[in-house]
Amino acid sequence: MTYQRVVVLTGAGISAESGIKTFRAADGLWEEHRVEDVATPEGFAANPELVQRFYNERRRQLLSAEVAVNPAHVALAEFEKKFTGEFLLVTQNIDDLHERAGSQKLIHMHGELLKMQCSYSGVVYPIDTDISTEARCACCGLRSGLRPHIVWFGEMPLGMDEIYTALEHCDLFIAVGTSGNVYPAAGFVQAAGSVGAHTIEVNLEPSAVQSAFSETRYGLASIELPRLLN
Ligand code: BJW
């Protein structure tokens, strides 16, 4: 590969073949749940039990035997290992499948399902069991303190300075399995394109920001990504 500074953005589509539901598909998570109820700070304040249950169920599923990495996760980890230039993987996903595949330089811009957070101090703790609304936070001792370590609508995504620095210097940007409906991630292609980077969309179907990419490849991530990176 002739490129020296590569940024890859992944979305729910890369984990779909691992058995994790996407958001906006006909049978996706947003068909079963109202976004405002489970993915906003206001929804959490109004009904913390409902929100904890939503993430507890997803955490249990992630840790179940049915979920495993697929060839797209593996292709990214193998690419990072052999690539001699600068590499950054940015995922909107809250699962840990990139880590399981061996990816190292990784930012979870929308948080992580296997972490919880104190609402008051911001301290983050690992968690691999259900979070109960009865549990007391280890740092503030309050029952209302603990929340999933997830970036909800209206909240600031994580690692933005590092992400934009990498985008401003990249010569290749690849987006995989994301519908391009949620900002700021949907705007990354424009940030990379504006500094002259080659931009590639790998997705099942054209995304909402498909026209901003210089190249598009449509098909399963598990097929298209190994083909692109090997
Ligand atoms: C396959 C496949 C296979 C399937 N192979 N492909 C108006 C304009 C612009 C912005 C705003 C606006 N009004 C409000 C905003 C901001 C808002 C926003 O974007 N709203 C939109 C709805 C318009 N954004 C925010 O509030 C964000 N914060 C923010 O903006 O802070 C201010 C700020 C300003 C400036 C700089 C920086 C910050 C926070 C967004 C938080 C998103 N949170 C969620 C839920 C939490 C995580 C969780 O519960 O899991 O994150 S929403 C949900 O959507 C989740 C995802 O990470 C995110 C993106 O979804 P994704 O990954 O694209 O999934 P899908 O389902 O949409 O698409 C899957 C794709 O895969 C499809 O295209 C399939 O075809 C494809 N596919 N199988 C390849 N096998």
From TrEMBL:
Cofactor detail note: Binds 1 zinc ion per subunit.
Binding residues for NAD(+): 11-30, 92-95, 177-179, 203-205, 221
Amino-acid positions noted as binding substrate in the UniProt annotation, renumbered to this chain: 55, 58
Enzyme class: transferase
Stored CDD domains: SIRT5_Af1_CobB
InterPro entries associated with the record: DHS-like_NAD/FAD-binding_dom, NAD-dep_sirtuin_deacylases, Sirtuin, Sirtuin_cat_small_dom_sf, Sirtuin_class_III, Ssirtuin_cat_dom
Entries under Pfam families matching the protein: SIR2
Catalytic residues of the enzyme: 110
Domain Deacetylase sirtuin-type residues, every copy: 1-230
Keywords: Acyltransferase, Cytoplasm, Metal-binding, NAD, Transferase, Zinc
Places the protein is found: Cytoplasm
Domain comment quoted from the record: 2 residues (Tyr-55 and Arg-58) present in a large hydrophobic pocket are probably involved in substrate specificity. They are important for desuccinylation activity, but dispensable for deacetylation activity.
Function: NAD-dependent lysine deacetylase and desuccinylase that specifically removes acetyl and succinyl groups on target proteins. Modulates the activities of several proteins which are inactive in their acylated form.
NCBIfam families per record: PRK00481.1-5 (NF001755)
PANTHER family registered for this protein in UniProt: NAD-DEPENDENT PROTEIN DEACYLASE, NAD-DEPENDENT PROTEIN DEACYLASE SIRTUIN-5, MITOCHONDRIAL-RELATED
Name of the protein described by the UniProt record: NAD-dependent protein deacylase
